[in-house]
Specification:
Strand content: 15-25%
Number of domains: 2
Distance between the termini: 7 Å
Oligomer: single chain
Number of helices: 3
Protein name: 3-oxoacyl-ACP synthase
Length: 150
Amino acid sequence: MIELKAKLHALCVAYVQSRMNAAEQAIAEAQQAQNDDTKSSAGDKYETGREMAQQETNRNLAQLNEANKLLVALNHISFNSIAQKAEAGSIIITTNGNFYLAISAGTLSADGKSYFAVSPASPIGYKLKDKTVGDAFVLNEKTYQITSII
């Protein structure tokens, strides 16, 4: 089971890394566009183009910063133990889906099964946190019964 946690953790790290790579690429492209913009007789057009490139750079820097925060959160998760209650790094099996409590990374596939990577701060993550096997909760008019915590 520790091996499954390690796989899901690695998939989350890969997800964050791809977001970081995309943001870095977009930053480089925006800076290149800003550098390639030549001043013409229409000064306002030049300034507008540079400002748009700067805004794009700022937007992508914010995305890169958020991805870095996700990576830091992942680095604080221990996946080498099995807890009695749901906590960061736990795999929670319910009657309505399998969850990996770490970061919001969407659906992950490992060992032929699907797991929803959710943040403890998300609505479902908040409901899952500190629950034990046998506990149930309702979210969006759907009942979840916890059958296993890994």
